[in-house]
Description:
By secondary structure, the protein is an alpha+beta fold. The chain folds into 3 domains: 27-120 and 190-260 and 567-707, Thrombin, subunit H, CATH 2.40.10.120; 123-188; 375-540, no CATH class. β15 and β16 form a beta hairpin.
Amino acid sequence: MNRWIKRATLFAFSLVVVAAANCVRADEGMWLFSNPPVKQIKEKYGVDVSPELLDNLQKSCLKFANSGSASFVSSDGLILTNHHVGLSTVAGLSTKENNLVAKGFYAENYADELKCPGLKLVALQEIVDVTEQVEAAVKDCKSFEETEKTRADAIKKIETDAKAEKGLRCDVVPMYQGGQYHLYCYKEFTDVRLVFTPEETVGFFGGDPDNFGYPRYNLDITLFRAYENDKPYRPEHFLKWSEAGAKDGEFVLVSGHPARTNRFNTVADLQYQRDVYYPHMMSKYRRREVLYQAFGSFNDENKRRVATDLFKIQNSRKNRGGILLGLQTPALMQRKIDAENELRKLATEKNVVDLSAGDPWDNIAKTTAEWAPYYVAYDLFEGGEAVACPVMNRARAIVRYAVETAKPDAERDAAYKEIALEERRKELADNLKRDDADVEALKLGDNLSMLYELSRPVDGGRALGAVVVPQATLDAIYDGKSPSARATDVVLKTKLGDSEYRKSLIDGGLEAVQASDDPAIKLALAINPLASDLRDIYSKKVAEPLRQNYAKIAKARFAVYGDTIYPDATFTLRLTYGKVGGYTEDDGTIRPFETYVKGALDHAREHAFVEPFNLAQSWVDAEKEGRAPLDAPLNFVTDQDIIGGNSGSPCVNADGEIVGLIFDGNIQSLVLNFIFDEVQARAVLVHSTGIREALRSIYKAEKLADELGK
């Protein structure tokens, strides 16, 4: 049986042991640092987690803008994250002649460290509850439309005022589906340099076949360094290194940025995701995976140029596929139904549900049902998937800026009001990092083709669900050409790569944009009216009703269960706790808690070193020369509550010392997006001992190994 199919089948059967989502159990929870689970930890493990440890852990952690987590691991600003989190940055530093992704990189001295253009990391400094300010701003609003606009304006003002006062990046984040609002204040690092990355055949050893599996044998690490005023940054807070590393049964904490969970979504919302959202996502991932594989099959250089995109797509396809499988499993959905019925029953008995505008669960069901026929069109036009590629992403942003700033300030979306325009202008003026022309045209052409394939002919245009794309819009999109020919024309003739031309459009406003003959701008203008209409529909008819009804459910949940619950993940810093330990598969196979360096070499030999099991030559040579740390633990598992976004998260022991680095979860962990399961779901980590020993013995990077934790 195919390994993936077998694991997926076992995963489906394992869901019968999953408990209801309303009651926190075992080591469940992606907890806020402003409400850490110190009481639960003390009761279960007898460990006192001090405020000092938590403060150091919080301020040592960093977030990559769109991809994962990291942490300071030395007093000289050394940053530890995953190979796959840093992959796009390393790929951007690579060339045909110097492929750092393939061969790896090590800078022995500061002068040799490579600047990473465009890379930005942030570290959380402070959390402020601003719920009262936000709710006070909207308390007299009379409609969904007025509430949505007023809230957005209030949030933008809170963020802008806080930034001016604190000198930090400040973001207001809704928690508990809008039941609370928290202001997150971050210190930004924009001068970040590459220090070390292993070969891809080590960082992603086993490739897609091993992904979301266990046992694993990966040195999935990359090290960067933060600089300030052209000198290594000296952080006040960084994580010490554990000499002993992780031990079986040991209590551990993980601090990172889980992306999104849907554990407190209603059953109707989950059914919408099962039947509409995820099937569409999977269709996109599959076509793009085939596209990149076909392009890469021509030669090694093509393969290199789309390697990062292919990795991301394959990872997302397998991840979302596992989530969809869970949603398609009756046992899981029944658990969610039971949990929802329990909450509704208890909330009704306590009379804590706000029914002033109808039953909130029923309202959400109605809203998701009405939105379903619009979603695909929304994704393609407002989401930009119909034209997604670097130059078109920037073209759409310029058009949106011009359209919004042509309005009176009071009528603009919050992100385009005068108080926020400096930030928008800087984003638009920043260097435009583009793909090679043929790769960019490949992406754009396939997306334009997808738009045509997903729509059907109707009188006056083509229909995408409930949305009709007018023939005039289609004519402007394709300009009388095939999708591939139109894409090539846009990519080769656009002038948006010229910073002065971009500046002329930004400064010239809507008049200059509408007069532009640039094909990328003209294409962005063609889809903008539909994107704007769909954005308005979603904002006023979907997002705001969902926000208000979920806020009512959240308040009812608080009234029933108290403060022993945590909010869904929002790509903000969270704390999870648990223990190191293996598990048993449904077929009786025992998975040990750790693997070893020797296991990586054996795994490669079992597969005759055929890609993706072609372990790097540096490891083979180290074994031949007798310097490979064969007995060093390489990977291990914990029962931690993690999801995507936790990649790169540090795992620390009770003393706050690093014992491992999150890089994956097993296939059973994909259900954690919706419901917690401690029986088989496991986080997969790189062992701290394996990291240091590999640096010292295999890569001869003794100076770097010695710097860790000091």
